[in-house]
Amino acid sequence: MILCHRCGNKFTPSHQAEKNQTHTENNVSAWQYSENTFATPPFVKSLASSAMNGFQPQGETVQDTNSVPDSELRIAPPQRSTVQLWPWLLVMLIATIFAGFLIQQDKWLDNRWFRSTLINLNLPVQQRDKDWLIVPESVQPEWVVRTDGSKVLLIRGKLRNLLSCELLVPEVEITLYAKHQPDQILDTLQLPITMQPDEHAIKQVPFIAPDADSMPVGPLSSRDFILLLQSLPDNVGDFTLSAKALQG
């Protein structure tokens, strides 16, 4: 600066003005904006770097995020393990069905369709008397006089298989009641069902019974039978028939 003693004005030499102008432009350029980022002055960067270094924990390294790609900065979420529910549901369903079968075993076995299915699968299921029906209207008793003059009781009837599977021919249980006392049981006989005897063989003495009927009875089908009672009490009045399934 130069002070004029005549007019009292102050003047700046040309080389000093150029120097001041250059210093001002340098300070302004350090604080100018780039496109979208505020440019940090060098002395601020050094202060920030010093402060970060001062707070850095011992033994750890601070990674400069400016040099790491964005793809590496993204932290992948933990993968969830997939759980298949249908195997557990299937196991629970089978366990429930099995437990229900054990609790209601007798009722399940009384079901004819269920029993037929088990037998058709060759599972060890015992035959029951309920698997058979002696058709009431088919029972026809008849007294037959043999060649020696003795009388025998001939009973004709029909058996029906109630299951949807083959069954072995059962035996027939005959209960005899007194003539004058209908509630009194005189005797109980259990006879096998044999092959059909002819009329001539029935009247012969002694009676030679045919072989037992070993042919299975088909599903839901019937089989005729003939029973011959040779020795009966004198006061027989009535009788009943019931099927007895073979065991084993």
Automatic annotation (TrEMBL):
Name of the protein in question: DUF3426 domain-containing protein
- From which domain of life does this come? Bacteria
Query: Keyword Transmembrane helix, does the record have it?
Result: yes
- Keyword tags: Membrane, Transmembrane, Transmembrane helix
TM segment ranges: 85-103
